[in-house]
Design goal:
The protein is mainly α. It has 13 helices and no strands. The protein has one domain. α6 runs antiparallel to α12, α6 crosses α13 and α11 packs antiparallel against α13. It starts with 19 loop residues before the first helix and ends with a helix.
Length: about 300
């Protein structure tokens, strides 16, 4: 899936901001693009997941650096590499987002899109929990109810399915951890992505050279469609991130919070309606608890924004 929003964006307290219409268009488009990612990566199902990930990293480096030069942000990259704290944090976030991408690709290729949607549905709860554990944030009543409902949903699925939903939890924890650390490091989305992909690129490129040397490379050997999709992975990674960053500058944080459910909802619908993945009573019970928690979470966020607006 896609990358988390620029965590440095501040919430706006006014009811309407200039550019709100454009911000909604940017935000909805970004989440729709991310929502169609299962279709994109299903088309690459014949390619080993690690090769897909490596191509995504390598081509992202090229595309992101074109944008970096075009927007005159080379100095920001140099500053990030010279700052030891920023570089250390971005090294960790690079590993987290690479893990998230790889697990998502594996989930899609192995018909576990329902689990991936579950992972992104519970990511907000992981973020709230991390805020309590690491940022000393205090849980409000509705947030506590939301967390409990989500926990019951995961526990119910574990008991009835007889196995722990590892894919969903890994996606949620890696994405939530990524968001937590990107909130700490003081770089914008594009600069952070540029540094992260540069850090990952040597290993990714070395792996692609290795499989090519041993005649196992999918690139240039599986037809033009696969070649185009692999090369386009860099664009598919970067464009929705830029759209999201533009939306985040124009919209209230509460609005972004509601929009974030577009992507896992689309993943869920694609899994059930298009790919016909089994959706059992255990899944239904689990998702009902989690969706109930999301309703509580969203209501709390909306109420908080309303209170902040009145206070201002």
């Amino acid at each position: 899936m896609s990358i988390v929003a620029d965590q440095g964006v501040k919430s706006q307290n006014t009811a309407y901001q200039p550019g709100t219409g454009a911000g909604l268009a940017f935000g909805i488009t970004a989440y729709l693009v991310w929502g169609f990612f299962p279709i994109y990566f299903k088309a690459l199902a014949a390619v080993p997941p690690l090769q897909v990930l490596s191509h995504r990293i390598v081509w992202s480096v090229l595309f992101v650096w074109i944008l970096i030069v075009w927007r005159g942000k080379v100095t920001d990259i140099r500053t990030a590499f010279c700052n030891r704290k920023s570089l250390a944090l971005l090294t960790v976030t690079a590993l987290l987002i690479a893990t998230n991408w790889l697990v998502f690709i594996i989930a899609v290729e192995h018909d576990q899109v329902i689990q991936s949607s579950l992972g992104y549905f519970i990511t907000p709860f992981v973020s709230v929990l991390f805020g309590v554990l690491f940022l000393q944030e205090r849980l409000r009543g509705m947030q506590l109810i939301a967390l409990c409902l989500a926990a019951v949903g995961v526990l119910l699925l574990t008991v009835q399915q007889g196995q722990f939903p590892w894919t969903a939890l890994i996606l949620a924890v890696t994405f939530g951890s990524y968001g937590l650390l990107r909130k700490i490091v003081s770089v914008d989305s594009l600069t952070g992505l540029a540094v992260e992909t540069v850090l990952l690129a040597p290993a990714a490129l070395a792996y692609l050279i290795h499989v090519s040397y041993h005649g196992q490379s999918a690139f240039l050997s599986m037809g033009p469609q696969v070649n185009i999709l692999l090369v386009s992975a860099g664009v598919a990674t970067t464009i929705p991130l830029l759209l999201f960053a533009s939306a985040a500058r124009r919209l209230r944080l509460a609005t972004i919070g509601f929009l974030q459910y577009i992507t896992p909802t689309m993943h869920f619908l694609l899994a059930v309606l298009l790919y016909h993945e089994p959706f059992t009573r255990a899944h239904l019970g689990s998702f009902l608890f989690i969706w109930g928690g999301l309703c509580c979470y969203s209501y709390d966020a909306f109420r908080g924004m309303q209170a902040a607006r009145r206070a201002s």
